[in-house]
Amino acid sequence: MKRLRLCFPQAISSRKLQRDSRFHYLCGYIIAALLTIIGYSLNDTIVIFDRIRENMRGQRRAQFAAVVNASVNQTLSRTLLTTGYTLLVVIALLLLGGDVLHGFALALLVGMIAGTYSTVFIASPLLVYCHAWTASRAGGTPVGAVDAR
After folding, report:
1. How confident is the model at residue 47 (pLDDT cuts 50, 70, 90)?
2. 16-137: which CATH number, 3.55.50.30, 3.30.70.380, 2.60.120.560, 1.20.1640.10?
3. Most exposed: 26, 76, 90, 98, by fewest CB within 10 Å?
4. What is the pTM of this model?
């Protein structure tokens, strides 16, 4: 009863869901899928940001946005290949895994697509925006900064 209350508070009033043992497993699968997705997306983000750091050492005079763009382009093939091969396995789990793995595989499928998208198209532009915002707050534009307009 306490596990149900932690995972799905709206289900406590339903007696059928309280007696259904599959409901307990559903909560575990969702938590496992979410943790896997967060780790996967975080790893991709770290790889791209590490490449940005490496490229900043060699290209000190280049604009920051150009360095970020080059870094994303350098790691894009690795990110897409890794995600593609992992998605093949997740699709196989979704189609061949049975009822027990269906929810887990579906959550992984959606989460991996969203995580890869957010790593490439949200995290890097957000870094460029934060860099420009920090430079504008400092009162000047440091070397390699992007105009905030």
Report:
1. very high
2. 1.20.1640.10
3. 98
4. 0.71
